Amino acid sequence: MASLATLSSIGPPERWELRHANLSLFSARFNAGVTIQPRIHGPFCRLLRHCRVVPIALLAACGRPAEDCVRVVSWADYRELALEQEIADSLAMRHPEIPVCLESLSGSGIYREKVLTSIAAGTPPSVFLLDGIDIPAFAGQHVLLDLRPYTARLAIALDQFHPRLLELFQTDSQLIAFPKGFTPMAVYFNRNVFEAAGEPPPAPGWTWRDFRETARRLTRDTDRDGLPDHWGFGWPREFFYLQSWLWAGGGDLLSPDGSRATGFLDAPATLGALDFYMGLATRDSVVPRIEMFRRESSVPIVRLFASNRLGMFVSGHWSMPQLLEHERAGRIRFGAAPIPTRDGGEVTPVLYASGWAVPRNAPHRRWAVQVAAFLSSETAQRIRSRGGLEVAGLTSVAGEVAARDTTGREAVFLDMTSNGRHSWGARVAKWREVEDALLDLLDRPLVRGEPLPRVAADIAQIIDRILRQ
Amino acid sequence: MSTDLTPVRATFRVVAAGVLGPLVLALGVSVGRFGQDARDARARALVLALESALAIDASAAAAAGLDSAMVLARTLGRLVRLSESFAFYDAASGYARARGVLPRAPDTLPRAVVAALLSLDRTFAARVAGRAVAIAPVKDADQWETLGAVLLDDRAAEPPLFPAGASALALLALVLTGAALVPITRAPGRSRRWPVFLPSLAFAIALITSSASPDAAGPESHGEWTAIVMGGWAVIAGIALTCVRRADRPLELREAGSAWLFLAPSFAHLLIFSIGPILFSLWLSFHEWNLLQPERPFVGLDNYRELAGDGAFWHAVRNTALYVLFVPAGMAVALGLALLADQRLPGVRLLRTVFFLPYVTSFVAISLVWRWMFQPDIGLLNHLLGALGVPPQPWLSSPVTALPSLMLMSVWMYAGYMMLIFLAGLQSIPESLYESARIDGAGPWHRFSRITLPLLRPTMLFILVTMVIFMFQVFTAVYVMTEGGPLHSTDVVVYHIYRAAWEYLRVGYASAMAWILFAIVFIITLVQFRSLGSRPAQ
To answer: What is the ipTM score, two decimals?
Structure first.
């Protein structure tokens, strides 16, 4: 307000000649208490008289408090945040002039709200972690900075990144984020449960029949109360756990251009995959009812797995840190295997990825781009790989991690990335509405007992309507 | 205290009202107009900055680049009727130039000014001597380096109807006149409170005029926020001064002054964090906004029209209405607990605390615990039912039992709170009434039905109204426990609004839903007051 008052007191232009000699008219005080008094003679003074550049510039600087650091926002949990801090420290060693503030909001819903709100309020973070599922929403709105022009300035060789990962962040010849990492969906199996049931570990090229038989043998009633207390397989009702199974059965959700679901969701191959998947719960009874009808229920599934009561579950690499903790504590031993296919053919796993994006209106653009690039650099990815959250986006780092791993789990994930396909969520702008409609795909047959073909046809039409809007 | 208007005061009121209307209108337009001017100036400065970025080349000689930019800007100025006065500053050399003024020698800006210019990452507008002045950073083609800045004094724009000083005077006159006119205590049939709303009218007009331009993107500019703040404070000041003016005796004057002094922070908080967002959501309900874009195109009643045909929304309304039915059941339970806790029994204080504990516990924690208790296979409830020989229930897994399960949990969660209110009501009933009834031979049931229940009517009305309003906004339990499933059986309105806004990024549509919910709750509350509140206790 003081600055505004100063400006108002300058008066109309015809009086400037009389007033400009008064230095205080052009004095402005920064927040830090520094008083600026420009020279009163020469061309600069003339500039001041005619355009009042200094008060305005100072007011501009004071009107919106300058961000004092490059804000990096992610959904890192406490384990990841420690590694991200280590990366930030490493950056500070190389670029001490760039102050970085890490902010973490664990929980996808809250994280998304926070980022959206800050963008809407015009105070976006300098760098934020972009989930693959949000790419269509953000890219279509032109809120993200195209990072491609900066790659030359920063000497970044994009071909060092995994091509499948890189292609996700390249839209319309723009690079909307520096790739961080990605993961395919794979089957985690509990070696303790397998050994207790006398089952061999899953072999490469296994089929749905193999999978079902294995799950049946792992499902047991150890306390003989007539109900199983050990289960072969666990699945939540979230669609992203199911997507790979549709592809493994030769089906799909949408047409290749992503414009319609009719003719694909209700196609025989897709219906066959859905029938197999749901049959694990209804016919084979190898799936626990716990949380079956709640979304995002992987946590209870992991708990069952960690207590050696569940033989297998499907998840991404993101489950690895939690499982490793249980393994280090001696509770479980586990392995990873590709998702089985209908006929034992090559599996096409769904890929989920994330990258470091910079909003167009991010403060400190130059620093922001430098920080985003560093967060995807080899140094950062090497540090981050110790957490085991994902497959590193740089092929060199991912290869190193797989070579170091003696259990073979990393190799399974890395091998699957080469045949992986990005989720529909990374390609369809209205994916969240589509995903909500897909909840009924499992619920209606399982809860109401409606025939699957009719349900699939209904939902395909609903999805078509959503996509047409 | 009644208000007698003398003929002089009545005449003064008529004249003042006739003057105030146009004055307020002009003031609103003035304030709003500045918002538009500032936006125009910012846009023009941005155009200049973008264009001059092409001319200024960091690698070339600064003076030459600057001269090129000047030539370009002059040409551009003729084309798009830019302002008379603008200036460039080249960050590479600290060299500055203004139009029409040829410096004799290059000069260097002070370091702090350079830092201030380089820190700019957006266009900025300010009001100087009644005119909008804008400054924009000049970036290179990749937006990597700040090459300089362009400043634009928007002389081309028409001056606002009122300069700043006149606006302030008008506002002051408005407030003082309003204060002189409005009675604080009204006599029946003599109330004239409408002048209080004149500042609000100014506020509304300012908002409308400032957001009516084609590139309006909500109250973002300095001018619009000025309008909002001025309007808000005008309302506060008007009401406060009114009260002060009408307090005839010194004591009342002091009391009124003190009251408003203490109320001012709360009122400001209410204005900024409640009334402001409420009005903004109303505005949004007529617009489309996806949060990511500043544009919020006006869509009229489209959101409401779409809502009328949205089966999922009305299904959520139905679910919410069903869920709210737990309130009467919970009240019955709470009344029973209150009667029990009102007895002079050993351990009754502990009992009260235990019953009240759920209400002060985190809703999320309670929801998580109950989610596990509702587990069909290993949950506590099915385990207890099994011990009684009852078959296991699906609880949250079935669309038939999911909503009743949530209601059951809610009864447990809120019974303690309702019990506490009932207990206060019970303890306010005079013991003498019960004594008299006993002497007259009334039994426990008669005492309860003829004394306790009628005298608890205000308490029951309070609980019913507040709990129904509160429960129509149920969200946490659904979000944590069911996420609206299975088969949308627990999809309630606020969860639906949340998804529309944050998942589907349809903020305008979500705002329309919120206003429909408000209308529903308002009507239900009105009905409750009319049907229960007007009947006096027998």
So the answer is: 0.75
